[in-house]
TrEMBL record:
This is Signal recognition particle receptor FtsY. It comes from Spirosoma endophyticum. Part of the signal recognition particle protein translocation system, which is composed of SRP and FtsY. Residues 281-294 form the SRP54-type proteins GTP-binding domain. InterPro entries: AAA+_ATPase, P-loop_NTPase, Signal_recog_particl_SRP54_hlx, SR_rcpt_FtsY, SRP/SRP_N, SRP54_GTPase_dom, SRP54_N_sf. One of its GO terms (cellular component) is plasma membrane. SMART domains: AAA, SRP54, SRP54_N. PANTHER family: SIGNAL RECOGNITION PARTICLE RECEPTOR SUBUNIT ALPHA. Keywords: Cell membrane, Cytoplasm, GTP-binding, Hydrolase, Membrane, Nucleotide-binding, Receptor. Its EC number is 3.6.5.4. Involved in targeting and insertion of nascent membrane proteins into the cytoplasmic membrane. Acts as a receptor for the complex formed by the signal recognition particle (SRP) and the ribosome-nascent chain (RNC). Gene3D superfamilies: P-loop containing nucleotide triphosphate hydrolases (3.40.50.300), Signal recognition particle SRP54, nucleotide-binding domain (1.20.120.140). The gene is ftsY. It is found in: Cell membrane; Cytoplasm.
Length: 308
């Protein structure tokens, strides 16, 4: 919780000071206050669609109750945000350090997608470390074969954590890497396989074909793989993260989100907007560069951190 609070400091500070300014000298929530709140939400990168939804819900409450004091605004915003997150995050019972995979799917296959630079490799490394720490047997697949650095970095993580990395080197077929990773995991009785993929958003069709092929080839070995398609987004890029989510959800069926770099940004509101707009659960958030700075997403804790 401490790491989370610290990680969201910038978002919180900016959100709070702006929210404070929005109600200064006002005792009731009127149209003017709501306009200000709208600006605060938009500037925290909650996204227009979700902001409009939140404001509408508050307006409805004001209309219904005939009155809302500005002293209640925090609590009500918190409730509305939590309500939005709850409809989209069935996994919210997760605790911050609740890293686990279903035991009945062995090996549990996680395919990781996202554009370069968002923190994909780091997230895979941190996840591997967390699973490994809890006694799970992990195999990594270096499927981002278009960047030598990605393969090397994943190998470094593998060495650091002490888990095998399946790699065929640069410019090889990523689906072959995925196949071999799943095969290796099955042979050694691993609990979880995490497969990196190339993060080029070149043309949509290429991306889609590439991801579809990786899936198809893996399925020759494990018919229900991948069990999870984890899209990594950089929270500090604000609206770009929304665009990437749009592109990737068109290219493949994304089942979970990891939103990174929330520590360096005041744009933490992306978590709320993206989760609401895409109806995909946020499973992990990154709030720093250290291994423990990847946390499982817990709605109530997140909302609490956001609101001080
Ligand atoms: P990739 O190209 O998507 O694989 O990105 P990398 O995993 O190489 O990460 C890019 C940079 O972002 C690295 O310097 C990471 O240490 C950094 N990074 C990743 N996640 C986080 C995070 O949650 N917080 C911060 N501050 N940095 C992060």
């Amino acid at each position: 919780k401490e790491t989370l609070d610290k990680g969201l400091e910038k978002t919180k500070d900016s959100f709070f000071s702006k929210l404070g300014r929005a109600v200064v000298g006002k005792s009731t929530v009127d149209e003017e206050v709501l306009d200000e709140v709208e600006n605060v939400l938009i500037s925290s990168d909650v996204g227009v669609e979700t902001t409009v939804k939140i404001i509408k819900r508050i307006e409805e409450r004001v209309a219904r109750d005939k009155y809302m004091g500005t002293d209640e605004l925090d609590r009500i915003l918190r409730e509305e945000i939590a309500a939005l997150l709850s409809t989209t995050n069935p996994g919210d019972t997760l605790q911050r350090d609740d890293f686990d995979v279903p035991a009945d799917k062995k090996p549990y296959v996680i395919m990781v997608v996202g554009v370069n630079g968002v923190g994909k490799t780091t997230t895979i490394g941190k996840l591997a470390a967390q699973f490994h720490k809890r006694g799970k047997k992990v195999v990594l697949g270096a499927g981002d074969t278009f960047r030598a650095a990605a393969v090397d970095q994943l190998k470094l993580w593998g060495d650091r954590v002490g888990v095998p990395v399946i790699s065929h080197g640069m410019n090889t077929d990523p689906s072959a890497v995925a196949f071999d990773a799943v095969k290796k995991a099955t042979e050694i009785g691993a609990d979880v396989v995490i497969i990196d993929t190339a993060g080029r958003l070149h043309t949509k069709v290429n991306l889609m074909n590439e991801l579809t092929k990786i899936k198809r080839v893996m399925q020759k070995f494990t018919p229900d793989a991948p069990h999870e398609v984890l899209l990594v987004l950089d929270g500090s890029t604000g609206q770009n993260a929304f665009i990437q989510a749009t592109e990737f959800t068109k290219a493949t069926e994304v089942t979970a989100l990891a939103i990174t770099k929330l520590d360096g940004t005041a744009k933490g509101g992306v978590v709320i907007g993206i989760s609401d707009q895409f109806k995909i659960p946020v499973k992990y958030i990154g709030v720093g560069e250290k291994i423990d700075d990847l946390q499982t997403f817990n709605k109530m804790e997140f909302v609490d951190s956001f609101f001080k």
